[in-house]
Amino acid sequence: MKRKAQFLTEHEMCSRFLENLPEGWTAYPEWQNWDIVLVRDSDGFQIGIEAKLRLNAKVVTQAAERSYQVDKPGPDCRAVLIPEGYTNDFAVVCSLLNLQIITMRDKLENPRYDRDWFLPELPDPDRFSYNYFPEFYPVSRLPLPEVVPTVEAGKPCPVRLTDWKLKAMKLSILLEKYGFVTRRTFKALSLSPTLFLYENNHWMKRGSTRGQWQKACDFPDLRMGFEVNYQELEQLFPDWSKQVSH
Asked: Quick one: DSSP state of residue 181?
């Protein structure tokens, strides 16, 4: 009887998967409500992945496309990542829902040359995948952030680098650069000013010049937990700040 792969946690399995990801792919962990969004560097092809230590109804439900999502952005393919040896009757359900099952070994003799540490192989740039990874042809692909989230995939109640947090980081960087922002800044960032200006949480205060807003005593530290991503956005300031009115 073939031994089953053993991982202590989903986080361990996801970490091992990402550490040994083949060249030509970029992983966005905990992005857009997926454990992992894989993006093929050559053409932007996307695979949304949900991970579980057992193939069960929960992971199938998480990965499956719902009726309200058919006209929303989504990945080209949807997949579930499980340890090798834990495929069961839910595999038939996955097939009916066009979900690809990716099975993964827990021990790699030589990760650089061992091509079978997970199966099936990811689809190549010509999209020949031997009937694996069925495509959903979404109306558009998932929007991706300027920076790859520095978070850990597969953890319970994960810390996520959300679209809102990225916009808030940019606001914080603008405040550090110029000392103030205006309502136009919020509009340019597509960021609601309500939480910052009107929730009595003392995040921001009126500046000395009419129409200007400055940091107040309780403005949140948006670097915390995302120090690398914050620094990357600072470095990219010349690019994204061109679209922000000040």
From this structure: B
What pLDDT is recorded for position 236? 94
User: Which two tokens mark 101?
Assistant: 């099952």
Which amino acid is located at 232 in the chain? E
What are the DSSP calls for 13-58, one per residue? HHHHHHHTPPTTEEEEEEETTEEEEEEETTT--EEEEEE-SS--HH
**Residue located via tokens 């949807």:** 78
Identify the pLDDT of residue 158. 79
- 245 DSSP assignment: -
Tell how strand 99-104 and strand 118-119 pair up: antiparallel
Mean local confidence (pLDDT), 112-129: 74
Please check the confidence at residue 109 and state whether its pLDDT lies above 80: no
Give the least confident one: 38-52, 111-125, 136-150, 228-242: 111-125
**Per-residue tokens: 244:** 């922000």
Q: What is the mean pLDDT of residues 116-142?
A: 84
User: What are the start-end ranges of the H helices in the chain?
Assistant: 10-19, 57-63, 90-96, 163-178, 183-189, 194-197, 227-235, 237-240
DSSP state, residue 171:
H
* Distance separating alpha carbons of residues 107 and 99, to the nearest angstrom: 25
The widest CA-to-CA distance across the chain, in whole angstroms, is 76
Locate 231 and state its tokens.
Answer: 């620094």
Question: In whole angstroms, what is the distance from residue 56 CA to residue 148 CA?
Answer: 29
